[in-house]
Amino acid sequence: MAAHNPAVRRTAARIASLTRWSQVADPKSATAPARKGFMARFEREVDPTGELSPAERARRAELAMRAHMSRLALASAKRRAVA
């Protein structure tokens, strides 16, 4: 397989992903630890000293995560515009 070919790599990755998720009864619970760790990153970012209430920390972490995703979307759009 030509690993350097982007189309072939995408297809191989799609096959692997579909195979993985076809074997899981509850995808949400399978990804829960990763999602928890991902949000913990933003909680540490918005409240490094742990002074905020849990509700306020969660609110700010959600906003920080949304800002992060928006930055990724903007970078992706810019890359697609150049290509």
Can you summarize this structure?
This protein has 83 residues and is mainly alpha-helical. It has 4 helices and no strands.
Characterise this structure:
- This protein starts with 5 loop residues before the first helix and ends with a helix.
- The chain folds into 2 domains: 1-26; 31-82, no CATH class.
- By secondary structure, it is an all-alpha fold.
- The chain is 78% helix and 0% strand.
- The longest helix is centred in the C-terminal third of the chain and has 29 residues, at 54-82.
- The mean pLDDT is 94.
- It is flat and about 50 Å long.
How would you name the oligomeric state of the polypeptide chains in this document?
single chain
- Structural class of the helices, strands and pairings? mainly alpha
Q: Biggest β-sheet, characterized?
A: none
Terminal Cα span: 25 Å
Low-confidence blocks of residues: none
List the domain count as a whole number.
Answer: 2
Mean pLDDT: 94
How many DSSP-defined strands? 0
Secondary-structure topology with pairs:
Blueprint: H1 6-22, H2 27-30, H3 32-46, H4 54-82
